[in-house]
Protein 1
Amino acid sequence: MSSTPISLRGQVEPFHVMEVLKAANERARTHGDVITLCAGQPSTPAPRVVRDAAAAALASGEVLGYTDALGIPALREAIAGHYADTYGLTVDPAQIAVTTGSSAAFTALFLAAFDAGDTVLMARPGYPAYRNTLQALGCRAIELDCGAEVRFQPTVAMLEQWAHRHGTPRGLILASPANPTGTVIAAAELAAIARWCEERDVLLISDEIYHGITYGEDAHSAWGSSRAAVLVGSLSKYFSMTGWRVGWAVLPPALVRPVELLLGNLNICAPALAQVAAVAAFGAEGRRELDGHVRRYAANRDLVVTRLPELGVAQWAPADGAFYAYADVSHLTHDTLAWCREVLDATGVALTPGVDFAPVGTGRAELDGSRWFRLSFAGATADIDEAMSRLAAYVQSR
Ligand SMILES: Cc1ncc(COP(=O)(O)O)c(C=O)c1O
């Protein structure tokens, strides 16, 4: 009898939000009353100028075949221009790799920089694909408990303590603003972490894909402090283009060629039509439209944080940026996976359980994702207001 080979490393954690999404889609079919606050994406299309550029490229009969593995020159130059305009940083387009969403940048980068068995640190709670992708590649993904006392972000003191006990890691992933917490690392702490990494040859991977969506101080780029770091960017969030699948990495010179070779083998290139159209996203007209979305997210954020206490919530992450509220509902449940299902059944509001971001039992219990949920406020303000009313009525009726 034959048996199909199935690898151990392929057995990654499920992405629990997909289950909620499936249940939400089912309820939308049967009840038609669903408000989806579980998806980590803007509810708006790509900027008008991008859609026009895509239509023009299609109409012209342009071939849109494979591009260079590192992306079309016009887009790499536009991204370099974006660093000059936004941060005053000079970036050589030759050090930019355009990728199939930032997700493909992470895979190529992990393969280019780390060997099986290498240790890479990240925050708990944090974006689950870092951990799952590293584990699938045979690396050791180590989560550092980051609670309210450190604003849900790693600190130099924490890295020092970890290295003292376990040795120097090979890499550190930071996300600022972060998913699911939205917290931004203060400029001085980011600089100190970048220096700490550079002095020890620890590769700092700075996930900057939520840059542009901040509500107080702008987020700083790690290249302002250390050019030994890798920056990861994306058109998915601020640029409102998740499904177009365009992201990028800004690389130290030694990583450019290995990443190019890996991308050529793994993906060949990012989607050509999306690359051609994406160039327009960086112009003034596109930015005006996108900044309007950020103003709406800001209003939505104020609404959500004003109304969270109606659910009896006393603790939530500061949401300095991104479009998420990550809230502690341990007064209501210690099983948010089941609770989110109940809430969906009772109210039609789809939320994300925290278990994707902080697996249960792998660190401090009060940070277990089973006590937290994430709500995305990227949608229409009226929908979010209605969702908060339904949630408050549900919690108060229990
Ligand atoms: C922190 C973070 N990094 C990376 C990604 C991957 O995004 P994409 O591949 O669309 O650029 C996401 C998606 O939600 C995210 O939240």
Protein 2
Amino acid sequence: MFKIGIIGIGNMGEAILKGILSKTNINPDEIIVSDTNSQRLEYIINKYSVAATDNNVRLAKLSNVVILSVKPKDLESVLSPIGVFLNQKILISVLAGIKISKIKQFAENAKVVRIMPNTPAMVGESATGVCFDGNISGEEKQWILKLLNSFGKTVVVEESLMDAITGLSGSGPAYVLAFIDSLAQAGVKQGLSYNQALELATQTVFGTAKMLMETKEHPAVLRDKVTSPAGTTIYGLHQLEKGKLKDTVMNAVESATQRSKELSE
Ligand SMILES: NC(=O)c1ccc[n+]([C@@H]2O[C@H](COP(=O)([O-])OP(=O)(O)OC[C@H]3O[C@@H](n4cnc5c(N)ncnc54)[C@H](OP(=O)(O)O)[C@@H]3O)[C@@H](O)[C@H]2O)c1
């Protein structure tokens, strides 16, 4: 038996595999992956030395825990043939917008975990929302969270908040990238080259996030430390206020959350 089977080893499947192998004590010979794309499978076998198959039924029978990382449109075709082999097994679904109740239509007796990671999972820094089916024990939850923390940080929520997670952190990397690009272009307007400005903007966002995490201070406290009376920063902040930064960000998250709800209906 394998400890973990991953069905669909595309972008997100590989990010999860990489995290598990580098940050947990699970070894390559305890993992099996499957994919319909034979070139993809060959690449994964060569890079990570895990077992592989093009047969999802075989994977489901041979795995204690199954991670499902195919596109949402493939849910039914992938799960219907293997649902019966997932009795009392943990099934972790990465599929955006697919509710636990929908998954249980095809895998009635599985212990379903629904997660919403984001693209920084590819560098081991996902912000992942997770919700659990009712039949999962506390001990199992702890084990699952350790697994999920191998490719980033995890926040447990009720399933009703998964759309909010999608609107905030699922789409969040695009918002942050838009901000970084804006900052870099602003630097160009002030005479810096784009490359210089991009490096400064990226490091500023990275360093600020790290400082926030390490000090655990409220953002307003750290903001006040860089904002001296009548100094440059308060002039800059005033312009952000005039441009309704907070209003715009709140609208963006609200709109993306609403869209996630529509798509999962
Ligand atoms: N990327 C993100 O930021 C992100 C964030 C949160 C959640 N997600 C979720 O993660 C899931 C995977 O996304 P992704 O970006 O990793 O997609 P992806 O790169 O397209 O990976 C999916 C893989 O599954 C394979 N596949 C298709 N049908 C299969 C089957 N019947 N059996 C086994 N493998 C099969 C695909 O092969 P083919 O190429 O041959 O079709 C592909 O290699 C999606 O459900 C998405 O909603 C993604």
